[in-house]
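To illustrate this point, what follows is a protein record of this kind.

___
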Amino acid sequence: MATATATSEQSSTYQYKLPFVIGASAAGTVIEWYDFYLYGVLAAFFATQFFPPGNEVAALLSSLAAFGAGFAVRPFGAAFFGRIGDIIGRKFTFLVTITLMGAATALVGVLPTYAQIGVLAPIILVTLRLLQGLALGGEYGGAAIYVAEHSPDHERGKYTSWIQTTATVGLVLALAVVGLFRITMGDAAFREYGWRIPFLLSSVLVVLALIIRLRLQETPLFTRLKAGGNSSTSPWRESFGNAPNRRLILLALFGATAGQAVVWYQGQFQALFFLQNTLGISFQNSYLIVGVAIVLATPFFIVFGRLSDRVGRKPIILGGCLLAALTYVPIYLLMSQFAGPATTDAATGRAVHLNPNIPMLIALVWIQVVYVTMVYGPIAAFLVEYFPARIRYTSLSIPYHIGNGWFGGFLPLIGASLAAATGNIYAGLAYPIIVALITVFIGWRYVRETKDVRIWDEVGGETQNVRAATTTA
């Protein structure tokens, strides 16, 4: 058995170095996020395509609810695919998830509108969003664990932070592709058929990602765990039926991922919705503001991931939550101020801002995205270290996707609902501020630091092969 294990470890390490592991994992994950967030970028637009006309606010809320439906099922996808990942393996699972995501996204691209098939349009759209959510529930855990289980113990934050860039890069890619087609095709053509092209393009990207990922092998850590007969046969029972593990899941949720999630979605998606739907800034300027801010802030994922290897995961994650909670109100007051003078749109009767101060708005969104990099850069390393290898895929994925799927995913709907109910455009900020502060309190008081956890000790210690592979990374 020892010989077989060593042979397997050698083949899984010497055939490729860690940069390829990161690149192959990240490429597929970027595409999955691109697929998932295309809908978010077009949420306001979809309100007019797939929902009954006549009530603009109701259509927008319905569109945001459908957007949230994909988030609602992410924990179920995490439980389903997490079990497969802990029993069969990490590689197999994220091959399945990217295939499911690609198929669901391509079908959105050929879906008839409400004007064509009536109420079936939103029903089918929500169904496809549910499939996307299930796929994403299994994808992130697989990619994060795959990289982490190829990484040495002392540089896990550094290497897994590259995976953390993928959600933001996927959003930027969605913004860029949608913006390109909307600008080059013109509004009329884009509304008629052009909106389908970014969804259909996904099928080509998925095939490329599958070709890359098929070259990967199982992680050396899981290979050794399974060869030694130590992998789990019942991840659900071990994760949820065991009181100490249940406690870890709850602490990871309320003491880390819930706050991380609301900061992520407020700083990127809600900032975009606020610019477009609340301030009435054109989609070209809104995409430009958010896109540039994200590009400028993205290197900080790596900065904070590496820093977490030195100072710890908790100070950075919880520090980002606290800074966000304390500064969101003044940031959004300033965004309104720098949006410029308002005029009334003759077609819709809504207030619009035609001459925004774009550099200042970029700076204000950039600050929010830096908060995102603080809370999100170290989170993969933290979660991998927080749970034992035999149930890692299941136990990690559940708090991550409840946090990001429920606490974060419904933030746009909750924010829009609070603003509509109160008539105060800033009322929606109460939700991310409260959740972030709860995470700061629980995380600081009850969650242990993980940066010194040596996950390789669970399977007999770090191998020379892994050290050799990372030396040239």
Remarks:
- The two ends are 30 Å apart (CA to CA).
- The chain has one domain: 16-471.
- Residues 16-471 form a domain with the Growth Hormone; Chain: A; fold (CATH 1.20.1250.20).
